[in-house]
Design goal:
By secondary structure, this protein is mainly α. 85% of the residues lie in helices and 0% in strands. The chain is elongated, with a radius of gyration of 14 Å.
Length: 79
């Protein structure tokens, strides 16, 4: 599962970078990426609520996703 999530992060970063190169100056790709990260965090919180066996990992992943979302929003506001 960690590999799948890692691949998702790489794909998201690649798409964000490609979009920013194609249309520099737009905060939209960063905002969309932050939205994807918040959505992912919310699903991890839901998983933590229903599956005790993965609760610790799911909450750690949710925290990481929220940090990435915050970084995306902060970067987008600088555009």
């Amino acid at each position: 599962m960690a590999r799948v999530l890692g691949v998702r992060h790489l794909v998201q970063a690649g798409l964000t970078a490609a979009t920013l190169r194609a249309g520099p100056g737009s905060p939209v790709p960063l905002g969309l990426g932050a939205g994807v990260d918040v959505l992912h965090a919310s699903t991890m919180v839901g998983l933590a609520l229903v599956d005790r066996a993965v609760r610790r990992v799911a909450l750690a992943d949710a925290g990481l996703e929220l940090a990435l979302a915050a970084a995306g929003v902060l970067t987008a506001t600088q555009y």
